[in-house]
Specification:
This protein has 495 residues and is of the alpha+beta class. The protein is built from three helices and 31 strands. Helices cover 21% and strands 32% of the residues. The protein is elongated and about 150 Å long.
Length: 495
């Protein structure tokens, strides 16, 4: 009787709390697409990354192979059974353990590998691979051990961060790999690595169960704190511009949990909530535009969602995506890749043992037209600044663009993105040319002045020589006159 009464009270409290919480997306739900990609062989390599990624044109996942790593990159339109053999990225000597598309060019992807390198690849047009891609556009060498994670800067073109089992973090300009920032070994191996919204700071959880915030341009860890007591893996994400972050991990009793932290005071979390007793590490993904946190775990079939409001995260089980099929990897598409006319607010790649399915989170509305509140301006494909700007210490917010289907927006290719840098470089070159012209004019004026002075010196020198000759002639004449007078005087005396 007591246990039943206690359970009844608990259920009433939970029900009351949910009724009091004002969910914006009470009717949000997740559903898997009917069309699947079949005959897949996902990698069995242990990795700290999501191991699946997507963008506006393509999706990628690691393929099971021996003798090096293989990354499958396929058009988003791919459905049905994959052929037994098809071209992939195969240019690493070791397993590929992390990868991601450039946020500014749909045909650029970076990979991190056990072979101690990270590489940047230019994909063929429309992902029409004719043969395996072996030669990378850029090779980033410098780590002393396996490269485990990478992260593109969200505002600055061509800037990417990597971390390694050597416990260092490096930030690279991929157009000039020798121009990199190296943060010396000062912490344990990072288990997650992510830039903040404006690309000024890096954050991550480490193997010694700490959360660390890093200022790479200052080459220092600016803040750290102990996180979850459990011995299993921990993950991290920034909550957009809220000034808060989330970590996921395990309690001392190995219960899965997440903690919400305030960046102004990391001495203790704002709150910590247990989730369940499953063994898979939970990966957090935050939709900063709508304020929804998703938690997905390798080995899980489900994806949970939490709404952020009033400074806290509120769990609403209604939108959960549930499946009995365990995942091998998950990956979240960027917001610009969702189908706004279907009111799809989030799209997820779910890789399982033999197939890939795409999970859509839908916010149903009666009106079929574009919904402004569901789709505010999202982060665009246009970089806010160059790598040179970032390395020089500039910090800017990311560019944004409309999600309206009739907006004048296009997906940017590598050449289009480079045009931004070229235009900036052209302006700098023009300014330098003007400066050179000014210096040349000044130099010309100085040269003219020098020439005039030299001419005066030459004239004076010539006059000086003439004077010297005149003086010499005068002295000779005076000597002769003196000698003649002396001779005449001697002659007179003899007479």
């Amino acid at each position: 009787g007591i246990n039943a009464e206690y359970m009844g009270i608990n259920l009433f409290v939970i029900f009351r709390e949910r009724m009091q919480t004002k969910y914006r997306f009470r009717n949000l739900y997740g559903e898997a697409s009917r069309d699947k990609v079949e005959n897949v062989r996902p990698s069995k390599v242990t990795s700290e990354s999501w191991m699946a990624r997507g963008n506006s044109t393509s999706f990628a996942f690691c393929w099971d192979t021996t003798g090096g790593g293989a990354l499958a990159v396929l058009p988003n339109s791919t459905v049905g059974k994959l052929p037994a053999n098809f071209p992939m990225i195969r240019g690493h000597q070791g397993a590929i353990v992390d990868f991601d598309f450039s946020p500014f060019a749909d045909n650029i992807i970076a990979t991190a590998s056990d072979d101690l390198t990270a590489k940047v690849w230019s994909l063929p047009a429309h992902n029409e691979f004719k043969t395996d891609l072996i030669d990378a556009s850029v090779v980033l060498s410098g780590h002393g051990k396996k490269v485990t994670l990478l992260a593109w800067n969200p505002t600055s073109e061509n800037v990417i961060a990597t971390t390694s089992m050597d416990k260092t973090v490096r930030v690279w300009d991929i157009t000039n790999p020798s121009n990199s920032i190296v943060l010396p070994e000062a912490h344990e191996v990072l288990l997650s690595l992510e830039w903040n919204f404006n690309g000024s700071l890096l954050g991550g959880t480490t193997k010694d169960r700490k959360l660390r915030l890093i200022d790479p341009r200052a080459r220092s860890t600016i803040s750290e704190t102990n996180t979850h007591e459990g011995s299993k893996g921990q993950k991290f994400t920034w909550l957009g511009e809220t000034g808060l972050v989330v970590t996921s991990g395990f309690s001392s009793n190995q219960e899965r949990q997440y903690s919400l932290w305030d960046l102004k005071n990391l001495s203790q979390p704002l709150n910590t909530k247990n989730i369940d007793n499953a063994s898979g590490v939970l990966y957090p993904f935050f939709d900063a535009d709508l304020g929804i946190l998703y938690l997905a775990g390798k080995g899980d079939g489900n994806i949970r969602s939490f709404e952020f409001s009033d400074g806290d995260l509120h769990y609403n089980s209604a939108p959960d995506y549930r499946s009995t099929v365990a995942s091998r990897a998950y990956g979240f598409y960027p917001k610009r890749a969702v189908n706004v006319m279907k009111h799809e607010v989030t799209r997820v790649i779910k890789v399982s043992e033999k197939e890939i399915e795409f999970v859509s989170f839908i916010a149903p509305r009666r009106a079929p037209e574009f919904q402004e509140d569901l789709f505010p301006d999202c982060i665009s494909e246009v970089p806010a600044q160059t790598a040179e700007d970032w390395f020089n210490g500039n910090t800017v917010a990311p560019n944004r663009r409309s999600m309206r289907p009739d907006a004048n927006v296009q997906s940017f290719t590598r050449s289009q993105v480079l045009t931004t840098s070229l235009n900036a470089n052209d302006a700098k070159i023009k300014a330098l040319e003007e400066q050179v012209a000014s210096l040349q004019a000044e130099l010309s004026n100085r040269n003219n002045t020098i020439a005039e002075i030299q001419a005066v010196v030459a004239r004076l020198t010539e006059q000086n020589e003439l004077l010297k000759q005149t003086v010499a002639n005068f002295e000779n004449a005076q000597q002769k006159s003196h000698e003649q007078q002396s001779h005449e005087q001697q002659s007179h005396e003899q007479q």
